[in-house]
Give the backbone structure.
Amino acid sequence: MTDAIQPGIRAIDLASDLAKARIRARYRAESRFRFYGRFAVGLTALFLVVVLADIVIRGIPAFTQHWLLMNVAVDAAEIDPNGTRDPAIIRGGDFQLLVRDVLRAQFPEVVDRAGRRSLDGILSSAAADQLRSRVVANPALVGQTVNAQVLLSADADLYFKGLSTRIERRAGRGVLTPNEVTGDVVLNSSMNDFAPLLAAVKQALSEQAAVVRREADRFRAVVSRLEARQAEVQRTLKAAASPSAEAENAKLASDIVSLGQRIKDLDSDAAALRSRSDAVGSEESLDDKLPSQLIAINGGLVKLTRIGAATAIGTVLLPLQSTAVAPAGSWQLVTYVTPEASRRINDRVVAWLERLREKGLVESAFNWSFFTSGDSREPELAGIRGALVGSALTLLVTLALCLPIGVAAAIYLEEFAPKNRLTEMIEVNINNLAAVPSIVFGLLGLSVFLSFMGLPRSSPLVGGLVLALLVLPTIIIASRAALKAVPPSIKEAALGVGASHQQAIFHHVLPLAMPGVLTGAIIGMAHALGETAPLLMIGMVAFIVEPARSITDAAAVLPVQIFLWADLPEIAFQAKTAAAIMVLLVFLFVMNGTAIYLRKRFERRW
């Protein structure tokens, strides 16, 4: 034997340096491709984790609710003056007045109208609903004192969840002496306790001055551009008169004058702020644009309005028990980090809420009403029950229509329809319909089901019809794929023992294809559950409080409920929106998980 190469066979070069370089280049290319693949998967996973984490962090607060624990005297004169013990009369009693009086009794010093209005605002408009339900169910409670849970307003609830302002506390180092227990108070410190606070205020004023100067510089840049444009327009006017150019020139001149005045005001504000910050050691006034500074002393709370190094002046928010000298460590400097102007609740309300928490009257519990209540304009009362019922009814109509029609169409097209141009055109159109934007189906439902057929607007019936049209192509395509996956030998064996074509399909092929059919149906229903645009087009965007009782009643659905809440300005609705998204995602995960389970459970390997 020899190593000579036979004639006609090309030698394969594996040993030369050039060949080894080519092999190394192929290995490097393969390594790069693997890196790109891993990077793409990792980046996608990172985005998914970030999105889900953001939704969960924002939504978790909506699953808890804060209540006040109160001993409420159910006054018969207010609830049942005639002593009839009739549930209908008791239900109409002013229970809100009872709980409001109990709350006011916690703060007897609040006697002004504005203060009482703010104090009442701590409670929800439905604060007494639980108490009312208990008394209606048991009229014997009239005239007794009942330990009741009283619902707080959304703003108070957000505060207790830590979403309003952060509170910092520092113990006082020196001896502090107040001169009054109510009203305006002068506080004198023996160790310049307010000097660090004064320095912080000076620094904050310096930062505000820098911000104002930057704003003024931004306006100067805008004015420069406007002046350049005005010069161009004036050159055009010198060349030829033009009404449009004259109008633009006049507008530019007006804008330049207006912005110039704004720049002067900003420069003046910046100079004033800078002058205050440079005056080291001088007293400073505190406004609502700075973090609120308070002194907790002798059982009360004082909001500082003016501070020096050793002396501060403030307004009492919670009355002091006495004007006794407070030794070092017995009083605290309390800072509400978020400025009062940037919060929905003022310092006075925060002081009341903190006092209620110190007394142990605040309780946090799971927010079952989020699942049992309908929509509301007040965030603490809003729930998704109506949307859940509407989504269930809509999906029921969708499933009842698209599953039998989709499976029947798939069986006919795959097993019985003749192979001609008509069926080919139908198949192409079905594939195209699967890629049509969902809003097109909404327009179709608006024109056909509402305008032409006159079906009830915003009803699960119309929503189910529209979504059935939307997911029907998906179910047909998935069902045909499942039928194709069944080996032809199954049908041939059935035909060989005398079964008809129909019997072979329905008794043998379809049962084996059913896992794939069900998988396609569940995926299609999950797609329908998350759709919003077509339902908006048929009017399912109305404010619906009560859940629908039938498929013809007006209803809301979960995606549309999320859309409505996301557009509301209240901060509490942000958590409600994220929580509703979490519920929707759970439903989608469950449906997709069910599809995977069915595919794995009934999968046959041929």
In short: The radius of gyration is 37 Å. Residues 63-160 form one domain. DSSP finds 20 helices and eleven strands in the chain.
